[in-house]
Amino acid sequence: MRVGLYPGTFDPITLGHIDIIRRAAALVDKLVIGVAINRDKGPLFPLEERVAMIEAECAKLSEETGTEIVAHPFENLLIDCAHEVGAQIIVRGLRAVADFEYEFQMVGMNRALDASVETVFLMADARRQAIASKLVKEIARLGGDVSPFVTPLVNDALKDKFGR
């Protein structure tokens, strides 16, 4: 069984993330969405809410693709998380050259820790390249319309967070 791990903070999950998940699901038998517990980033949504949003969105994708997709919170090294879930592949989405530079360093470190776990890069769909969770949160905080960037479920959650 080919198991892939798509890690991120997903604060919140966006249409860009969902695009990568859908495409990654075609490459593996099981896709684990690694939800990073990163206290340094100070997420807007607590872990439980991020996991719930991911599970709701991925249930639809799992049905569509026929691939098992599960959320898995983690707070350890990415390579250790890959071992925990039995992943042979780490999936990363790239939006721009700046993403590649950071990801290139991460791949090097992960390969030094365990060369048997491959990293696969998927380019963001051209229509989704500008979407970043950080920007989505900022637009929502300032009262802007984020519906082009997130699902209705996430849009409602953002409105609730910012009292709109």
UniProtKB/TrEMBL annotation:
Pathways involved: Cofactor biosynthesis; coenzyme A biosynthesis; CoA from (R)-pantothenate: step 4/5
Chain positions of site Transition state stabilizer: 17
Superkingdom of this protein's organism: Bacteria
Residues holding ATP: 9-10, 17, 93-95, 103, 128-134
Enzyme category, top tier: transferase
Any one biological process term the GO annotation gives: coenzyme A biosynthetic process
PANTHER family attached to this UniProt entry: PHOSPHOPANTETHEINE ADENYLYLTRANSFERASE (PTHR21342:SF1)
Role description: Reversibly transfers an adenylyl group from ATP to 4'-phosphopantetheine, yielding dephospho-CoA (dPCoA) and pyrophosphate.
Record-stated family: Belongs to the bacterial CoaD family.
Name listed for the protein in its UniProt record: Phosphopantetheine adenylyltransferase
Lineage of producing organism: Bacteria, Pseudomonadati, Pseudomonadota, Alphaproteobacteria, Rhodobacterales
